[in-house]
Amino acid sequence: MTRIGILVTSTRSGRIGPTVARWVADQAPEGVQAEIVDLAEVELPLFDEPQSPKASPGQSPATRAWAETIESYDALVITTPEYNGSYTAVLKNAIDHLYAEWVGKPVGVIGYGWNAGADAMEVLARVADRIGMARTDGPGLRLGEHLEVDGTPTDAAPADEMSALFTALVERVDAQG
Ligand SMILES: Cc1cc2nc3c(=O)[nH]c(=O)nc-3n(C[C@H](O)[C@H](O)[C@H](O)COP(=O)(O)O)c2cc1C
Q: Boundaries of each NADPH-dependent FMN reductase-like domain copy (predicted)?
């Protein structure tokens, strides 16, 4: 069984992130245990560690708990809405708290928004690659096409591409042994 965490990275009231993440989790093939990890429920303060986590892992209880959460998954799927041409500040904060835990981690990315989250995925790709995540981009979900405005997936939601992303992540996990 491959354990894959599906990250919800929006935290505002009225967000559609949990609905999008549920659809993603529902596409998990046999052999994948997909669990939703909602940043609204992860108690991380704004980054306040004395050193860069690359130089020295943060030691605050909140940082250690977050590190253990990320370490507990074989792979992740980050679902990212597009906020002003990028991903959310909450996600950046969660990324910046760790370093070693991200390096080599198989990470799939799913964007969503009016332009299918394309700009958010592009910015996140740059950050993920710089850190050294083993990134695979999945589909972008366009509001009004793949998702209703309340986040409900439509019949056009790309289930096949989502399955392909899970397969690619499992292959990466298996290749890492
Ligand atoms: C602060 C903010 C900025 C946004 N900027 C963009 C944007 O640049 N491009 C876009 O396509 N949609 C943008 N949107 C629309 C969101 O992508 C859309 O509302 C999506 O549902 C947000 O995800 P959430 O409901 O999980 O928070 C923005 C929404 C918010 C709240």
A: 3-129
